[in-house]
Amino acid sequence: MKLTKLGHACWRFEKDGRAFVLDPGSFSGTGLLDGAEAVLITHEHVDHVDQNLIKSASPDLEIWTCNGVVNALGEVPVKIQTVREGDVFDVAGFTVRVIGEWHAPTVPDAPIIQNIGFLIDDRVFYPGDALTDPGVAVETLLVPSNAPWLRVWDFVEYLRAVRPNHAFSTHDGLVNEIGGGMIDNFLAAEAKNQKADMRRLKPGESIEFA
Fold first, then answer.
1. H or E stretch including 71?
2. DSSP 8-state secondary structure symbol assigned to residue 199
3. 123-139 burial, b for 16+ CB within 10 Å, e for fewer?
4. pLDDT of residue 25
5. Cα dihedral value 134, 10, 53, 175, nearest 10
6. If residue 53 lies in a helix (H) or strand (E), which one and from where to where?
């Protein structure tokens, strides 16, 4: 399995010559769908799904997402599969389990929207915009490290609750160089504490797992 951070909250998964993309949002750069046969989307916020990108995609592209995203997208040329917590499906040679239902609270009076997380091949868990308990042992966690709804306290406690062997920062496209350095320091400290691999990948950087 090859895992590449494309930017902000967007990741590319590759295995045996096949690939899918997770959360190709408007903060994540260009060329996000290149070579991908499918897309997984956790929720409807623009930093996780670029509607113009999806609407201009090849009709061969397949999307797996929650009902909230389907409603937000409206008519698109691609094939959309609606999934919810507990569903299991195969995509691009990977087995994906849906875990989670709701986005983390954002601001007072704002409704809580749908948000689903994805456990890929029972190895990599991406919770989207939430700190969802996966309920199972997780080898690799894509951990949100910066958001209007998130404190450092929260994501460090999440790392301690999940206790993955590997954790890579996601949802960090809003931070400048100083903020990125702070995230690096917090991850390094927790990596030492847990004796695990925890760090921030740069956009375009990949890691491979046997």
1. helix 67-73
2. E
3. bbbbbbbbbbebeeebe
4. 96
5. 120
6. helix 51-55
Cα angle, residue 125 at apex, residues 24 and 10 outer, rounded to 5°: 15
Rounded Cα–Cα distance for residues 70 and 84 (Å) = 12
Confidence class of residue 205 from pLDDT cuts 50, 70 and 90? very high
Q: Which residue has the tokens 């450092």?
A: 152
| Size (the chain), residues | 210
First to last CA, the chain: 7
User: DSSP alpha helices (H): ranges in 134-204?
Assistant: 152-162, 177-194
Residue matched to tokens 């623009």: 46
Please state, in angstroms and rounded to a whole number, the distance separating the CA atoms of residues 3 and 186: 22
Beta strands in 9-165 (DSSP E): 10-15, 18-22, 38-41, 62-65, 79-82, 88-91, 94-99, 117-120, 124-126, 140-144
Q: Decide: 116 and 43 in contact? Cβ < 8 Å.
A: yes
Supply the pTM of this predicted model.
Answer: 0.96
pLDDT tens-digit map of 151-174: 999 999 999 999 999 999 999 999
Degrees, nearest 5: CA angle 160-118-73 = 130
